[in-house]
Amino acid sequence: MFDSIDPRKPTPLYAQIAASVRVAVATGALAPGTALPSVRALANQLRVNPATVVQAYRELSLEGFVEKRHGAGTFVLDVAPEVRRQEREIVARSIARRALGEAARAGVSAEALRAALETELSASQPDDESAAAPPTPADPESWMPPTPATGGGR
């Protein structure tokens, strides 16, 4: 879940950590009641200052994604379906912005991108409604909306 945290990205590290957890909660990868890594363990794993993890967990707590239990750790809360849906919409818009930017750099018009996306969507529709959902991108960081430091978003 935290593989995409990168200090070279313009998004602050705490925001990258928080976004990774938000996406995992919104997609169901983190179930309610799941314990997050301790501040010290995650800071060591990511090689960041523990205060960075504290800031991420504090933001997630204020947003209602996690609950801090004194002496026990930080746990994922049961987030309302509407909140999860909104978070997935944020992810979708971020993906669309990235695709538009890449298309523009490659000289591909928005209309050509739309046509290509519609073609891919048609080709990827499962014939059977019980088919599994397509895999999620490997880089949740790339789904993040811009932060105030980078021009908008959270």
Description:
The protein is mainly α. The radius of gyration is 17 Å and the shape is globular. It has a single domain (1-127, 135-154), classed as Arc Repressor Mutant, subunit A. Helices cover 49% and strands 5% of the residues. β1 (66-69) and β2 (73-76) form a beta hairpin. The chain has a two-stranded antiparallel sheet with strand order 1-2.
Question: Can you say what the CATH homologous superfamily is?
Answer: Winged helix-like DNA-binding domain superfamily/Winged helix DNA-binding domain
Q: What portion of the residues fall into strands of 2 or more residues?
A: 5-15%
Architecture in CATH?
Orthogonal Bundle
| Average pLDDT reading | 84
Order of helices and strands: HHHEEHH
The strand line-up of the biggest sheet is: 1-2
What summary fits the major beta sheet? Answer: 2 strands, antiparallel
Report how far apart the termini are.
Answer: 20 Å
